[in-house]
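User: I'm putting together notes for a lab meeting next week and I want to include a structural view of one of the chains we've been expressing. I don't have a solved structure, so I'd like a prediction I can at least talk through. The sequence is below, exactly as it appears in our construct file.
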Amino acid sequence: MTSLAQNPIYAALFGDPETEALFSAGAELDAMIRVEAALAVAQADLGVIPNEAGPAIALACAQLNIEPEALSEATARNGVPVPALVKAMREQMADLPHAQYLHWGATSQDIMDSGLALRLRPMLDLWQSRLDRILSQLGSLAEAHADLPMATRTYGQAATPTSFGAVVAGWGWPLLDHARTLDDLRPRVLRISLSGAAGTLAAMGPQGAAVRTALATALDLSDPGRSWHSDRSGLGQLAGWCSGLAAALGKIGEDLLLMTQSGIAVVRIEGAGASSTMPQKQNPVGPSALVALGRHVLGLAATFGAAGMHRQQRDGAAWFTEWLTLPQLCVNTGAILRLCEDILSRLAPDASAMAHDLQSGHGVIQAEALAFAVAEHTTLDRVAAAARVGELCVEALRSGRDLVELAEQEWPGTDWTALIENRSLGSGPEEARRFSLEAVRLRP
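Assistant: Thanks for the context. Below is the predicted structure for the 444-residue chain, given as structure tokens.
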């Protein structure tokens, strides 16, 4: 059964064609053939194979026409596609005397892992551009609404005021961290694999390490300077990065689900989803998909991490687990980035709804600010002020009178409204503006 990302009914919601294309059979074959061609040239330049063999093999590789289906039966038997691929390549190079030097001293995992790295590079470029745009969107929202008051909630209960810009900054800070660490991740993920049958490069003799370095240079990949067949830490870091990113983007979805609830909706998402039977509804479909995709990425990343325990020099079961997990993990990560960018382009705060929400508890959300103001402007100490304000909160909720009104009755002659306003948003506006500046500086 096809995944939802590939199902035409659901693909626009859960899919990401641009990321998915990099995991297609055609893209995988092209990448592996590119590695084989570059390997032959590097070996020829270093005298591992005849000098004329490298360019001849590379030219022949550019003219190959191999259908993925032709490799299916042999792959099921061998557990890897490379033996069938090399056989098909040599058959199409039948008139080339140097075809015997194709795949010289390499092993299937070298070709597959190096080919994967070639496909991951444009994927990371794609994700970086999307993440940069998301940060730009968040930066603009934070700056524009740095002073727009709204209620915070902890444990689901109204807590203290903040600004919408500060809430947006809270969404954006972890994404800034992920954007910054993406550059550090690249050399750990985009690296050459050339280790030979059991990690020793024995078949290439003393030139093995030089061939690996030359191949890395030719393919613009990093050279780890060692074998990493059973060391999956680089790809594990990619899975961990995806997991952290998904948690941060999923948090935006979780918050938006609560911020769009009937009765307390404080944001609007243009073009929200419709119900088949309830015409009054505007369902937060996008935020729901953000959360679902985030959970799926977190689960897949955990599975991928468990596959990092390889037996001995190569472990088929662990490697197969990677194959089953990584494509969907990456497609879902691409989809959650794509979806978040779309949602933010349609998101706007509702200032009047936020103001109404702030007053919905008869002003008791200002209790903290009032307690500190009372401690500063009356004879009560901090403990006594907090206790008395707590009693006034109970009275406000019981009587339906506003907390500030009760404070003015308790301690007349002081402008408690002004004192509360001076401290109620705290550092929220400043943090919103600082995040906006950081988001701009990320990609000058």
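A couple of points you could mention at the meeting. Residues 11-354 form a domain with the Fumarase C; Chain A, domain 2 fold (CATH 1.20.200.10). The CA atoms of residues 60 and 66 lie 12 Å apart.

User: Perfect, that's what I needed.
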